[in-house]
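Deliverable D5.2: sample structural annotation.
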Amino acid sequence: MTGVDAVIFDLGNVLISVNEARAADRFAARTGKSSADIHAYFLTTPHSTELALGKITKRQFYWTVAKDLGFTGDYDELAMIWSDIFAPIPDMIELAQSLAGRRPRLILSNTNVIHADFFLERYPWINEFDAVILSHEVGLLKPDAAIYKLAVQRTGLPAERCVFIDDLTANVQGAQAAGLQAIHHQNPVQTRAELTKLGVLTI
């Protein structure tokens, strides 16, 4: 892998950590269901995917989920419980910020409008990237080849000149299948080393 002119970052568990157990525990306390049941629900319900693809509104999602879980709080409470699961990963944010002005930097994330409302307000540095591609805004989810092609188009570069960084193997493989270079992110030290090998970072 050589010759990188643009860096595309996943968001969750690359630039910000995601603690889904925190939300499951708080929903369990509000509904009487177990944390395991809550986690399984959000993982398997088609409504999560519909929201991530922008096919339903956040209010539609709220009414459906509240009914399914027996949640009696209002939309704002549900949104806060479900969204207050993120924390910045300082070393990765510093890495990304060090590339500003040197190479196009993009974010490519499978997410939803409820989570985006939260993290875009809490982490304004996200909007400093050259492009932010969120699944619910474009109606596509990784590892669909179309979402990688869209990201590449935003860079104005050939796919092979872009490197994509993600923590999930399927998403990394999807990027590679779409012609991008890719790094399977495991920790900041490992990703920094991979980017150094590609000439993106200096030792």
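Annotation notes: The CA atoms of residues 148 and 175 lie 6 Å apart. The first strand starts at residue 6 and ends at 9.
The annotation will be released with the project's public dataset once the embargo ends.
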